[in-house]
Automatic annotation (TrEMBL):
Name used for this protein in its record: Periplasmic chaperone PpiD
Species per Swiss-Prot/TrEMBL record: Shewanella psychropiezotolerans
Gene3D superfamilies noted in UniProt: 3.10.50.40, Porin chaperone SurA, peptide-binding domain
Keywords: Cell inner membrane, Cell membrane, Chaperone, Isomerase, Membrane, Rotamase, Transmembrane, Transmembrane helix
Positions of transmembrane segments: 12-34
Top-level taxon in the UniProt lineage: Bacteria
Domain PpiC as annotated: residue spans: 268-365
The keyword Cell membrane appears for this protein: yes
Pfam entry (one): Rotamase_3
Keyword Mitochondrion: no
Family affiliation: Belongs to the PpiD chaperone family.
Subcellular location: Cell inner membrane
Length: 621
């Protein structure tokens, strides 16, 4: 949970596994902590349901994360229903794994105390100012994330309990010193080599390819010469944003709107609240009795702030004398909100029940509302009136577009005439390189649908964004197929000539290798001492081959390797032991190995729990 709030937190060893657990809160959200429902289950884990809504919420969060990470590439991927189905299935598997962990933690009796949760929050850097816990910052961040304090602490409890289980497994993993030393020795090993490149370029001119050879290659490799499916679309597009640019709003109209709606331009009244909270607990009657006892103490003259510190079960606000935050009307639960806005400054309420428990609420201070001058909000009003007029026009036109394109489904001309717009034409594109806005997944799905592609009908109205829609139909379409031989013949000829030249280079390289070391005196070799496994600067094929060759015994080892344009003869003279292995390197390797082992352990744990448990997926998954 805290990792979700603290930006940029990166761990080593265990955290690479723990993040799989911690990130669950970014996907499951608050709803899964607010009780069960009667809706259909996406999966049932040992009798406990994972609801369809929880899956959908987690899936949408994952989609948003992928879209942010992949950018425009995601739009193309999202047009593939199979890809989206795989994403949703992986999210469901993650939720199943989390449920298994939670159940196992409960069976093992793992618990997290209120004090542990408090310490975790108090020491969290995201909630600190100048190294000290800042209650105002804490509450502000919770509001930004959409959490209530109690809900957040419940989520923290689940998160930290789950961490106990995973950390106990990850913490049991270890790496032997010999493993890191061996890996460091292998990775740091260097090799002394010599190599000679036989370039194939000079042999291309002498290569000859007949028409029959080119045709035979084409016939044998038809899959390499497929042209993708392409299409061009006719479309009518409606966009309220563009319409707003054509709307004129006078200063008088803006002034009139301001005068009629002054209440919209008031700085809302805010109230600084404090409370003493008794959680509902397992025995509500006992909780209510405790709250009423505290109220009696207040009536007897005891100080509200002191009682909040000693009696309130909201320990964070309790330390501040019960102070919560400034609230506008409508922010808190209705029962709390109504009482807060009925109090006079300095007074406190009787016992009030909400979903969090029993409260005694006190009004500490009031910030009165204030009216914003017309000049300050004039531009905002004009923009608002333009948008409203454009949206009103948009919805009228959208309905006309939907009606006419449905009633006359084989042309867009009738709809264009009714709307007073032009039918536009898209460029030719493929499924994988559609320009905006045709790269929208819904547009691509409609364009390649049976109704549009095969039947030649208008699509339904497709919503691109809010107040932005279009209807499409096929303008032109070419199916995927084999490219004519004549169009690719020249490329095939060049390719076959290159292959012939490479074969000549291979034979020369083999001859040179066979004649080594006698040929060494007449052939120029490039010497590379202490070649590293990951070194840049020479062809990667040469480096890879050099580290595959056996260690020389009495004499150098010689071999050849294919390059992009020729062959290389490689002479391995010596294998050098790794240098510069220090504690820092060994420590880094130990962390990397430990993380890999821990990840394997984590996945094995989930597989074992799943195999031992009863996991049932709904038929729709």
């Amino acid at each position: 949970m805290l990792e979700k709030i603290r930006e940029g937190s990166q761990g080593v060893i265990a955290k690479s596994i723990l993040v799989l657990v911690i990130l669950s809160f970014a996907f499951t959200g608050v709803s899964s902590y607010l009780g069960s429902s009667t809706e259909a289950a996406a999966a049932t884990v040992n009798g406990e349901d994972i609801s369809e809504s929880a899956l959908e919420q987690a899936y949408q969060s994952e989609r948003a994360r992928l879209e942010q990470q992949l950018g425009e590439m995601f739009q193309a991927l999202a047009a593939d229903d199979t890809y989206l189905a795989s994403v949703k299935q992986s999210v469901l598997e993650r939720l199943v794994a989390e449920k298994l962990l939670d159940q196992t933690a409960t069976e093992l009796g793992l618990r997290v105390s209120d004090q542990q949760i408090k310490n975790a929050i108090m020491t969290e850097p995201a909630f600190q100012t100048d190294g000290q816990f800042d209650n105002d910052r804490y509450l502000a961040i919770l509001r930004q994330l959409g959490y209530q304090a109690n809900t957040f602490r419940n989520m923290m409890r689940t998160d930290m309990t789950r961490r106990q289980l995973v950390a106990s497994l990850v913490g049991s993993e270890f790496v032997l010193p010999g493993e890191t030393s061996y890996l460091a020795g292998i990775q740091g090993q260097t090799r002394d080599i010599r190599y000679h490149i036989v370039d194939a370029s000079p042999f291309v001119a002498d290569a000859e390819v007949t028409d029959e050879q080119a045709q035979a290659f084409f016939d044998a490799n038809l899959a390499q010469f497929m042209s993708p499916e392409t299409m061009s679309l006719e479309y009518i597009e409606l966009n309220a944003t563009d319409m707003a640019n054509d709307v004129a709003v006078t200063d008088a109209e803006a002034q009139a709107y301001y005068d009629e709606n002054k209440q919209q331009y008031l700085k809302a009244e805010k109230r600084l609240a404090a409370h003493i909270l008794v959680n509902l607990g397992d025995d509500e009657s006992a909780s209510k009795a405790k709250a009423e006892a505290i109220y009696s103490k207040l009536q007897a003259g005891e100080d509200f702030a002191e009682l909040a510190k000693t009696e309130s079960e909201d320990t964070f606000s309790g330390e501040q004398g019960g102070q919560l935050d400034w609230f506008e009307q409508g922010v808190m639960e209705p029962a709390f909100d109504d009482v807060l806005y009925s109090l006079s400054k300095g007074s406190y309420s009787t016992v009030v029940k909400t979903s969090f428990g029993y409260h005694i609420i006190k009004l500490l201070d009031v910030q009165p509302g204030a009216e914003a001058p017309f000049a300050d909000v004039k531009d905002k009003i004009i923009a608002q009136l333009k948008d409203k007029a454009a949206v009103d026009t948009y919805y009228g036109l959208q309905q006309t577009l939907a009606d006419v394109t449905y009633e006359v489904p084989d042309t867009l001309s009738e709809a264009a005439s009714e709307l007073g717009v032009e039918v536009m034409t898209s460029p030719v594109f493929t499924r994988s390189n559609a320009p905006a806005p045709f790269d929208n997944p819904d547009v691509l799905k409609a364009a390649f649908s049976t109704n549009v592609l095969l039947d030649g009908m208008n699509s339904d109205v497709i919503e691109i964004d809010a107040n932005h829609a279009m209807v499409i139909r096929i303008k032109s379409h070419t199916t995927a197929g084999t490219v004519d031989f004549a169009k690719v013949k020249a490329g095939i000829v060049e390719r076959l000539k290159q292959e012939q030249a490479n074969e000549v280079a291979r034979e020369k390289a083999q001859t040179l290798m066979s004649a080594f070391p006698d040929a060494e005196s007449s052939t120029e070799f490039v010497t590379k001492a202490k070649l590293g496994r990951f070194e840049q600067g020479i062809d990667a094929s040469i480096t890879s081959k050099a580290f595959q060759m056996a260690q020389p015994a009495d004499s150098a080892v010689v071999d050849t390797v294919a390059l992009a344009n020729g062959y290389a003869v490689i002479v391995l003279d010596k294998v050098n032991l790794a240098e510069g292995i220090d504690d820092n390197l060994l420590g880094a390797l130990e962390q990397r190995l430990s993380a890999q082992y821990s990840e394997g352990d984590y996945r094995a744990l989930i597989a074992t729990l799943k195999a031992k448990g009863d996991v049932v997926y709904s038929s729709t998954q």
